[in-house]
Each structure stands twice: as structure tokens, then as C-alpha cells.
Amino acid sequence: MSMLGYAKSSNLAAYQSAAAHGGVAASDPHRLIVMLLDGALERISTARGCMQRNETSEKARLINRSMSIIGELRNSLDLRNGGQIAANLAELYDYMCRRLLLATTENKVEMLDEVSLLLHEIRGAWLAIAPEGRGR
To answer: pLDDT tens digits for 80-96?
Structure first.
């Protein structure tokens, strides 16, 4: 297993563990998605501060973790049965990862803000899904 694969696996395992300890285990995978979105948003926000303080090593670590979380969100999509919505989300997640990578190399806070805004929009839409519609 590559280091990237290991990082993704351990990252998801950490969130699954947190979900289980928070009483939201596998019985509520939608809550897990919200936790992943929150985790990415938190790391991007912290990376933003690191970028402003020229803490390049910590910035890179946090952005890398954000990209791993977004990768897990992408991997959780059901592209076979999810139709155009899943395909659009997959492309959006890919776009966000490219923007985060560019933000790291170019040190541009605006790119972090753009990805944060997109993640907030996805989070809001996800939370707006009626509980009875989530089981589908």
C-alpha cells in the first residue's frame, strides 16, 4: 500500500472511530459525511492561518490532510447509481483537490477560500436533505 493510500485509509478510519465514539457509527453514514466535510473545512481554515504566518510545513501538512478527506468524500460516491449528481460531485471534488494543490505551491489564500466556500455549499445542501430521503 502506498503512503497516500495508507494516509487515506487511516484518515477515514480516524473519522469512523470518532463517529463510533460519538454515537453516530455506521447507522448514520450521512453524519459521517458531515464530519468529513467539517474535518476538511477545519484543516483548510487552519492552513489559511499557517499560510498567513509563513508556516509552510504545517500549511502543507494540513492541506494534504484536507485533500485526503476530500478524496475520501469522492471515493464514497456511488458513481454507478448516483447519476449526474454523483458525477458532478466527483468532478467538483477533483477540482477542489487541484485548487488546494495549487494553493500550496502558489501560497494563495484566495484558493483556500474558494474551496472552503464550495465545501460549505455542499455541506449546506447535504444537511438540507430530509431525513426520510437519506435512506435511498
So the answer is: 998 999 999 999 999 99
C-alpha cell at 105: 505551491
* Better-scored residue on pLDDT, 112 or 10: 112
**Phi, psi dihedrals of residue 90, rounded to the nearest 5°:** -60, -45
5-41 b/e (C-beta count within 10 Å ≥ 16 → b)? eebbeebbeebbeebeeeebeeebeeebbebbbebbb
pTM of the entire predicted model: 0.76
Amino acid identity, position 7: A
Q: How far apart (Å, rounded) are the C-alpha atoms in residues 131 and 121?
A: 18
The interaxial angle of helices 56-75 and 109-128, nearest 10 deg, is 30
